[in-house]
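Sequence of Phosphomethylpyrimidine synthase (Paludisphaera borealis).
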Amino acid sequence: MTQIELARQGVVSPEMEYVAKRENLDPELVRSEVARGRMIIPANTVHLGLGLEPMAIGIKAKCKINANIGNSAVTSDVENELAKLKMAVDLGADTVMDLSTGGSIDSIRQAIIKASKVPIGTVPMYQAIQQVKKVEDLTPQDLLAMVEHQAMQGVDYMTLHAGILRDYIPLTAHRLTGIVSRGGSLMAQWMIAHNLENPLYTHFDDLCDIMRQYDVSWSLGDSLRPGSLADASDAAQFAELKTLGELTRRAWARGCQVMVEGPGHVPMDQIAMNMEKQAVECSEAPFYVLGPLVTDIAPGYDHITSAIGAALAGWHGASMLCYVTPKEHLGLPEVEDVRQGVVAYKIAAHAADIARHRTGARDRDDALSRARYSFNWEEQFRLSLDPETARRMHDETLPQEAFKSAAFCSMCGPKFCSMRITEDIRKHAAATAALVNLEPAGAGA
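Predicted 3D structure, token representation.
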């Protein structure tokens, strides 16, 4: 049985026990959240046998981040993808999506799943499209077969764009950036070519039956997510969201775990509303958002513009944040881009946990602050999200070992460090107070 089916029967599975320990939550709370669909444990039974370490995505758990990797028809190979995987996981990515669209997709995915202790997600359409000359040649059976094939490989969650319907395509006609989801645009192209409804929608129950067999979690794809601020929160986006809510409840009824994907470009003042609307439409299924970017003017820095929106989204209820790298909109990310994206999103997710007052969320911040005040440089490095970068930046100007115990850095130098001056003031105040307490009564009269 799937995790949601076990939870509904009152069973705390070994995976739920594992998650409870990782999250410092009561196992019964984890079970009840999984049972109601507000938490998922993406854990394909095949991947569990290969060493997957179960994790949870849901509002009661820590805010999670996903890192996208994968080759393209232009660049990358299996060694490079494994290097990206290692970089992402070492820096704290909670899940990784293989979005390969080039050659050797099967062998790359098999290597990634075998090497990964975190859940792996995919978009089956990307591989299915490689097996035909054009998208309209795809049949519903092709898509079903690809989902089953990837489930058998051990994929833990799949993005399937089942919520875009024929009636919604005209709603995108006046958008500034149209349909920016690759999977969504391909499904729209198929529907227009055949003048038929989305086969992922019409065969949704069949897909559920395949995914239930391996306990693959749904990641209901947001085909009509906005690709620019101008298109945010429009009729197309919210029409699809309503359908995603319907599909969420249908998947639950067939024993499948579900999370729902959300928008990618949203002005800051609309983020809270988007989170609240998803919770209502999708019966509080975990929300998984791409950013969102809060401005469109910073190509090369979109890991920053999107991390701002991601922190706000996490604060207001998103359960997982899909990272954006500096290469977003510009090219396929390389290993260093993965580093930048993961760190930016670990900051966003951690800030969201603090804003949500999650128990213990600020402990690491306070520990690092104490190390900073006491000039314990090694402890500062250890507690950093990216210790390697913190150490390298410190050592660029003060590389000698003696400076690892110095009460200053190169910003202020020995004379102008405010923390050292503060400590001197405190010592002086303490000494003065002690002296006053030692004076005999009336000595100052």
